[in-house]
Every structure is written in structure tokens, then in C-alpha cells.
Fold this protein.
Amino acid sequence: MLPDHASEAPHERHAEFVAVLTATHGKLMGYLMSLLGRRQDAEDVLQRASVLMWQKFATFEPGTDFMAWASTICFYEAKNFIRLAARSPVYFDDDLLATLGSERLEDLPARESRIQALETCLGKLGREDQQLIRAAYLDSSARGITELAVKMNRAPQTLYNKLNHLRRMLAECVQRQLQEEHA
């Protein structure tokens, strides 16, 4: 007997896949970032995992936890990436990677609250500070603080100090936001 979803039209399954993958993309990216440490590596692995998820989507049972299913695929793709890429300055053995993977997966629900709190706190910063944060952490063309300092015509140590101050302020603000949320 075929599963209920086997009778669905291929375009309906495709639309379902795109919807659930899109809804979980940010969480999967955060999960992979916690395992791999570099955004570019996480993006590469998520791209490969997404293709594999689509190829295996017929085995996914609608109504079950897509995030759990997808994160398992991402975990094994990350494990394979670490083993083959030889880019990682630190080699994680299989047991450590499995531990990290399960802990990060458990932490994902709280991640949404932290992201919302961080967005609120970022919104409280001045425009110049927001631009500095974006340039330092989100601009994929920046290759480091030294290069950013040259672009901004500022001393690297000045940027390090400013970013350190902003990180502390944001961390304190996020903590306050989360405490208020749980009060």
C-alpha cells in the first residue's frame, strides 16, 4: 500500500517541500553554523543537504517533524564536509560532532527568542553603530577587521574596541529582553 502522499501530484509535493524548507531554512542554517563555524561552509552544506532532502522527500511523512528529519540530513552532510573538506582548523571526532549536533538541535527553539531579542536590541542602536555591525558581521565582502578598518579609514584597534563595546551592550540588552519575556 502506498503512503497517502504518494498519490499527490509532483507539483504539490514540490510546493510542500519548498514551503517546509523555506520555513526551516534559518534554523537549519543556524544549526549548521554551530557545527561548522563558518557561514560559507554552512551555506555550502545546506545547499548540498537541500538537494539530498529533495531527492529523499518521498520518504518524509507529512505531519511529522520536518526540522528533525532535515537536521539529521544536515548533520550527516556536515560530518561528511568536515571529513572531506580539510578546511576546518580543528578536527571534531564523530562523538563530539554528534554531541554538538544534538545539543544545538535542542537549543533551536530558544534561538528564535534570542534572535527576536537581538533584532530589538539592534534597533535601539544608532544608525552608525548598526552599519558597523552589519559591515563587520554580515557583509560577505569584508575579509576581516583590518580590511574593514582600511575601508572605513579607521585604525583596526579602534574598530576592535568599538565592536567589543557593542557586543557587550547587545549581550546585556538581549539578556534583559529575554528576562522580561520570561517574567
Summary: The radius of gyration is 20 Å. Residues 1-108 form one domain. The mean pLDDT is 82.
